[in-house]
Amino acid sequence: MENFQRNDGIPLRTEAFEAVQVNLSAVERRAATLPTRRSVKKEYQAAWLVKALTCIDLTTLAGDDTPGRVQRLCAKAMRPLSDELVEGLGLTDAPPKVGAVCVYPAMVPAAVKALAGSGIPVASVATGFPAGLTPLPQRLAEIRYAVDQGAHEIDIVINRQLVFSQDWQALYDEVAAMREACGAAHLKAILATGDLKTLRNVYKASMVAMQAGADFIKTSTGKEDVNATLPVSLVMLRALRDYGEETGFKIGFKPAGGLKTAKDAMNWLFLMKEELGRRWLEPDLFRIGASSLLGDIERQLEHFVTGRYSAAYRHPLA
């Protein structure tokens, strides 16, 4: 994360997005071609999957989380692959590790302690996750608590009612206040796109969050009825690209929720590569919010190394 360039944000400019139209059928058509146009096999597929692994925000956001579970998850984050797999892939000199570990604020101290010296950042959800409907002072206090406990990244969730009412100034002011509360921690703005109803709303909310200083935009909390999809991600990436062309800032992207298979991970990597280029395949600009995804990536890599598929229970997370 040392090379991470912060997004300074800009004053709210509604003219940058108010008149934007989104062609739903064209977006869906473009997204549908991604899984069919590219096919990578054998060592090339293994390389893409190792890349995906390094971009995972390994996540536990359950009501029964405990420090012990978080500690086990962090152990997995530091050594996601067995020594045999690492050797078989020729990665002994630089064993891969995940991009971050994402937990609730109360679990941040346990994660920080478990990851000490690993170089893996701790991300914390905050701001009344997942609904975002607690009063603003409490949401800001939650951010400050997580940062004080050692979180390097804060995954905030926007107040969706401000999108429905098109109150862009209020949304901008809230995200800007959250950015200030983060201090040196990076701000990842969750749009909860499954709740936003239209792709135009997704584009507009993306632009407002970035103008207010978000370092990343993220699709979902993982708790909505519909989470990350390729069409929604495509619209967010187009917004990200437009903002970058206007300001020069590189903004990160994080799909979350519903990405469960190695094939899912590949499809999102292809999307990033085709829409934004090679630079957005690094963990400072791309993350995948996931838990069970890592297990399937392990199974596919084990098949590449050994020629056999292992049972899922051989790759526990925590």
UniProtKB/TrEMBL annotation:
GO molecular function annotation: deoxyribose-phosphate aldolase activity
Superkingdom of origin organism: Bacteria
Transmembrane segments: none
Pathway it works in: Carbohydrate degradation; 2-deoxy-D-ribose 1-phosphate degradation; D-glyceraldehyde 3-phosphate and acetaldehyde from 2-deoxy-alpha-D-ribose 1-phosphate: step 2/2
Primary location class: cytoplasm
EC annotation from Swiss-Prot or TrEMBL: 4.1.2.4
GO cellular component: cytoplasm
Reaction catalyzed: 2-deoxy-D-ribose 5-phosphate = D-glyceraldehyde 3-phosphate + acetaldehyde
Subcellular location: Cytoplasmic granule
Keywords: Cytoplasm, Lyase, Schiff base
InterPro entries referenced in this protein's UniProt entry, alphabetically: Aldolase_TIM, DeoC, DeoC/FbaB/LacD_aldolase
One of the GO biological process terms: deoxyribonucleotide catabolic process
Family of the protein in this entry: Belongs to the DeoC/FbaB aldolase family. DeoC type 2 subfamily.
Stated name of the protein: Deoxyribose-phosphate aldolase
Gene name in the database record: deoC
